[in-house]
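One such shown below:

_____
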Amino acid sequence: MAAEGPATRLVQVAEHPRLLKLKDMFNSKFGSIPKFYVRAPGRVNIIGEHIDYCGYAVLPMAVEQDMLIAVEPVKTQTIRLINTNPLYPDFSTSVNNIQIDKTKPQWHNYFLCGFKGIQEHFCLSNLTGMNCLVDGNIPPSSGLSSSSALVCCAGLVTLTALGMSLSKVELAEICAKSERYIGTEGGGMDQSISFLAEEGTAKLIEFSPLRATDVKLPSGAVFVIANSCVEMNKAATSYFNIRVTECRLAAKLLAKYKSLQWDEVLRLEEVQAKLGVSLEEMLLITEDALHPEPYSPEEICSCLEITLEELQTQILSPDTQDVLHFKLYQRTKHVYSEAARVLQFKKICEEAPDNVVQLLGELMNQSHVSCRDMFECSCPELDQLVDICRKFGAQGSRLTGAGWGGCTVSIVPADKLSSFLANVQEAYYQTSDRSSVLGTQSLFATKPGGGALVFLEA
């Protein structure tokens, strides 16, 4: 499946209300009808937070919410982008002058990331222009990967407009790389699941090489997403990239401690692979090699026997140059323990013991504690929401996505779902400042959805 390209489906647009509405709006905006449509889903990460960019496997599933783009290739060399949401302004640019402003993560820049990724992969110039109408129903800045879904959608739009083909794996890798044009140093989970997802199954996504394995979730449980209503834009803040840098620094210090070629090491997984030891042993090595007190840039230089200038120019990213403290011990403890929880989660799903829901819930709870205390990517609202979800019947609940806001994911016994939804709605969302946002987008049960697709009108 992964070696094939995304599927193309013939559809009767009149039978799909959302496509029909998009077609009519496209006609009113551009005076023509779309030649094709592309959709790319958002995702919920069930377990495995902040470890993809450290080289470790994660366990997401696609959600039904997605980005949907209606497209008409045109003879002019201009990309015209219109969003169905009036909050997002129209945009147009020449295909030969793609500029992505890292200082302002505006919506159209994510489209340009996907476009530029395909353009550069094939070393193309003088591409055809296109008119695009973009419609998204993934809540923005919610941790459900709306931005990556737009990058993936734009990549597939561009590929389709050019009449070219790539495998799902190639597309995922290109889009993961090209999203970094916006300044976020992600690890590739979001783009991978957007292309590799299949209906009815979660996926264990592994990296180097990229591959996806089905994980059958227990039939007696439902996964429920709850939005904390605190927005966090990864590209607009430095929190995310600081964590990436802390993990990179920790990998180098661990490698140096174990007399490895530390300057070639970028990810914590590489240290484990080079040493040939278990995750449990890596946690013990971390205890010996790193101290819980934060590291200053000067101490890191002393440990690695490099100058401050070498640290700043060769290791630190542009937005971490002024960071004064790096919590390497805590971040490393989270990554190695979280990587182990992902593998345990998959194993429990495969073995399916009678208490499978309880065991998976315990792993999710441990994950949240680690994200909160060791990785420090939670916030008071997420912690409150997790507590409420557990109080009203969730066997496990944790933040999902980058954190610092966004959503929680909870595992709920199927027979408790209706009372769970009612109680969480009352306990968290009926406060004055949240009641206005409560809708189907804030609290909903979800099941594993399919990956990116091209639709052609039959």
Observations:
- The first strand starts at residue 7 and ends at 11.
- The radius of gyration is 22 Å.
- The mean pLDDT is 94.
- The longest helix spans residues 328-351.
